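PROTEIN SPECIFICATION:
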Amino acid sequence: MNYRFQALQDLLKEKETSIEVNRQRIKNALVSTCQEVLGLKQHHHKEWIHIKTLDKIQ
């Protein structure tokens, strides 16, 4: 993670890039670090219709 912060500091030292480019690079660094540390969110979807309800309909 320290490497990521170093990358952010290096981005801020570059004078040739625009604010938008810096913002996008910082966002990408933060998102990738969060995904590595926290992982992606697991989605648990409920069944649309319960099996017992389906049996009652039939």
Observations:
- The helical segments are 2-13, 19-38, 51-57.
- The CA atoms of residues 42 and 58 lie 33 Å apart.
- The chain has a mean pLDDT of 79.
